[in-house]
C-alpha cells in the first residue's frame, strides 16, 4: 500500500509497529465485540495502557503531540484491524487535538483536561439528539443548561454517544437561553444524574456502543461551561472520520487481493488474479485507495502549512473516503464472490461498517451544497 509514502514521525512508526505485533489478538477481539455489539474492552484497555488516549495531547502537557496528519495515519492503521474502536476513540482524539491546537478553553480548564487525560481519561463531544437530527444542520438541542447555585443545571437526552461506557467525561452540548445558542459543558461521567441507557442495536459499527446519555438534574460548577456559543469554524481534526473509512477500505482491498492471488478454481489454470476482469478490478481498487489517501493526507498537510479556507477540502476528504470506500468494498466482494458473505470472514463486517460512514458528519448533501456555494462565490 502507498501509506508507507507518508510515514515520517517516530510516533507513527511506533504505533504501526505495535499494531503489527499485536494484530492477531486485535482481530479476534474485534470480531467478538462486533458479534456481541459491545465495546472491544480488551483493545481499549491495551490502547489506554500504551497511552493512545494521549496521542493528540501536546508534548508539553504529557502527550505524544501528534499533529493532524499523524493522527490520521495512525487511526487509519488501527481501523484496518478494528474500525469500531478506531472511530470511537477517534472522537476523543479529535476533541483533544481541537481544544489544545486552537486554545478553545480557559487555561485552568485545559490544565484540568490534560490532567484527566494523563490519568487515562477519555471524552466525546455529545451533541446529537433524536428530535434534532444531525447537529451539523443547525437544529436547536432539547438538552438545556440553566443557572443553578453558582453553577449549572443540565437536563436532556443525547444519542450516538460512542464509547459510552468507557468515557470518563462528556462534552455536552446544551442550549443556554442567555447565550441564545448551544454551549459545551465538561461533565464527569460519574456525576450524579448521568446515566447510560443501552439503545445501540445496529447493523454497522456495532462495537462503538453508541448508546444514549440521560442527564437528569446534573449539577456542574460555573467553570464547567468550557465553550460558549461560537461561530462554526473549519476543524481539521474531524478528518479522523475519513481516516477510519480509508482503513476499512484498505483492509477490504487487501483481503480481495490475497484471495485473488491464491484462489485457483479447477475451471482455470493459475489463479484468478490473472483473469483480465479481475486484474481490472484490482487496479480500480488501488486507484481509488490512492486517490482517497493522497487527498486526505494532502488536506492535513495544507493545514499544517498554515493554509486557510480549507473547509471545502476537509469536507471533500470525508466525502471521497466514504463514497470511494463503498466502491472499494463492493469491488472487493465481487472479487471474492459468495464467500464474501460468510459471517466467519471479516469483509462482510467491513461492508456493514462502511455504510455507517454515510451518516457521520458532514453528510453528502451538505458537502455538495458547500462546494456549490464556493463555486458561486468565485463567480
Keywords:
single chain, 379 residues, alpha+beta, Butyryl-Coa Dehydrogenase, subunit A, domain 1, Butyryl-CoA Dehydrogenase, subunit A, domain 3, four-stranded antiparallel β-sheet, 8 strands, globular, acyl-CoA dehydrogenase activity, flavin adenine dinucleotide binding, Acyl-CoA dehydrogenase, Acyl-CoA_Oxase/DH_mid-dom_sf, AcylCoA_DH/ox_N_sf
Summarize this, please?
This protein is of the alpha+beta class and 379 residues long. The chain has helices at residues 10-21, 23-36, 41-49, 68-81, 83-102, 107-118, 240-262, 276-304, 311-336, 347-356, 364-378; strands spanning 123-126, 144-148, 151-161, 169-176, 181-188, 194-197, 211-221, 225-227.
Please characterize this protein's 3D structure.
The protein is globular. The chain has helices at 10-21, 23-36, 41-49, 68-81, 83-102, 107-118, 240-262, 276-304, 311-336, 347-356, 364-378; strands at residues 123-126, 144-148, 151-161, 169-176, 181-188, 194-197, 211-221, 225-227. Helix 1 (10-21) runs parallel beside helix 4, helix 7 packs parallel to helix 9 and helix 9 crosses helix 11. It starts with 9 loop residues before the first helix and ends with a helix. It has eleven helices and eight strands. The protein has three domains: 2-118, Orthogonal Bundle (Butyryl-Coa Dehydrogenase, subunit A, domain 1); 123-227, Beta Barrel (Butyryl-CoA Dehydrogenase, subunit A, domain 2), CATH 2.40.110.10; 236-378, Up-down Bundle (Butyryl-CoA Dehydrogenase, subunit A, domain 3). The strands form two sheets. It has a four-stranded mixed beta sheet with strand order 1-4-5-8. It is α+β, with helices and mostly antiparallel strands and 379 residues long. Keywords: FAD, Flavoprotein, Oxidoreductase. Residues 127-218 form the Acyl-CoA oxidase/dehydrogenase middle domain. Residues 27-103 form the Acyl-CoA dehydrogenase/oxidase N-terminal domain.
Amino acid at each position: 500500500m502507498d501509506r508507507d509514502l507518508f510515514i515520517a514521525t517516530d510516533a507513527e512508526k511506533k504505533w504501526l509497529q505495535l499494531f503489527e505485533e499485536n494484530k492477531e489478538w486485535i482481530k479476534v477481539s474485534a470480531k467478538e465485540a462486533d458479534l456481541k455489539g459491545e465495546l472491544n474492552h480488551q483493545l481499549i484497555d491495551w490502547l489506554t495502557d500504551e497511552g493512545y488516549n494521549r496521542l493528540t495531547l501536546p508534548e508539553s502537557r504529557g502527550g505524544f503531540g501528534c499533529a493532524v496528519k499523524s493522527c490520521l495515519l495512525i487511526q487509519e492503521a488501527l481501523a484496518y484491524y478494528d474500525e469500531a474502536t478506531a472511530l470511537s476513540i477517534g472522537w476523543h482524539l479529535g476533541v483533544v487535538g481541537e481544544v489544545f491546537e486552537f486554545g478553545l478553553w480557559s487555561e485552568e480548564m485545559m490544565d484540568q483536561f490534560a490532567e484527566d487525560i494523563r490519568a487515562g481519561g477519555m471524552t466525546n463531544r455529545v451533541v446529537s439528539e433524536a428530535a434534532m437530527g444531525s447537529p451539523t444542520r443547525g437544529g436547536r438541542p432539547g438538552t438545556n443548561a440553566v443557572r443553578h447555585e453558582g453553577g449549572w443545571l443540565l437536563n436532556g437526552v443525547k444519542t450516538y454517544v460512542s464509547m459510552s461506557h468507557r468515557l470518563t467525561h462528556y462534552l455536552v452540548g446544551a442550549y443556554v437561553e442567555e447565550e441564545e445558542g448551544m454551549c459545551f459543558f465538561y461533565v464527569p461521567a460519574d456525576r450524579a444524574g448521568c446515566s447510560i441507557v443501552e439503545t445501540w442495536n445496529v447493523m454497522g459499527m456495532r462495537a462503538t456502543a453508541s448508546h444514549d446519555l440521560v442527564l437528569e438534574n446534573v449539577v456542574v460548577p460555573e467553570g464547567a461551561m468550557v465553550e460558549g456559543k461560537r461561530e462554526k469554524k473549519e476543524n481539521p481534526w474531524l478528518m479522523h472520520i475519513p481516516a477510519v473509512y480509508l482503513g476499512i477500505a484498505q483492509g477490504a482491498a487487501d483481503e480481495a487481493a490475497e484471495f485473488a492471488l491464491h484462489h485457483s478454481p479447477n475451471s482455470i489454470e493459475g489463479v484468478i488474479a490473472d483473469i483480465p476482469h479481475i486484474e481490472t478490478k484490482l487496479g480500480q481498487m488501488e486507484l481509488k485507495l490512492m486517490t482517497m489517501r493522497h487527498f486526505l493526507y494532502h488536506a492535513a498537510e495544507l493545514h499544517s502549512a498554515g493554509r486557510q479556507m480549507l473547509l471545502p477540502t476537509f469536507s471533500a476528504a470525508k466525502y471521497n473516503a466514504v463514497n470511494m470506500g463503498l466502491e472499494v468494498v463492493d469491488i472487493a466482494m465481487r472479487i471474492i464472490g459468495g464467500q464474501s458473505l460468510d459471517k466467519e470472514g471479516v469483509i462482510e463486517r467491513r461492508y456493514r461498517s462502511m455504510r455507517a460512514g454515510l451518516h457521520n458528519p458532514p453528510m453528502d448533501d451538505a458537502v455538495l451544497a458547500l462546494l456549490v456555494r464556493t463555486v458561486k462565490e468565485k463567480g
